[in-house]
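Students often ask why we bother encoding 3D structure as a string. The short answer is that it lets us treat folding as translation between two languages. Here is a chain of 73 residues written in the first language.
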Amino acid sequence: MIQQSSGQKPTSNMERRYIVSEKDLPVSCPLPWTVRWNSHPRVYLPLKLGTNATCPYCGAVFSLASGDQHNNG
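And here it is in the second language, the structure alphabet:
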């Protein structure tokens, strides 16, 4: 599940940080379910636990959360 700081409907290019779980992989930006899903060409971002990936088009940063974070609520 994608976590965002704003609590609003996900919109690419508005959020600057996304925390994704392993079930969200592979991750692409813009995210397919965002309001502005066609705001720039889709790019797939490589993610490993403990690393970040940055979209080369909009600068959004994606992080892979550990399973423990999602199991705790």
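Translate back mentally: Residues 69-73 have pLDDT under 50 and may be disordered. Keep this in mind for the problem set.
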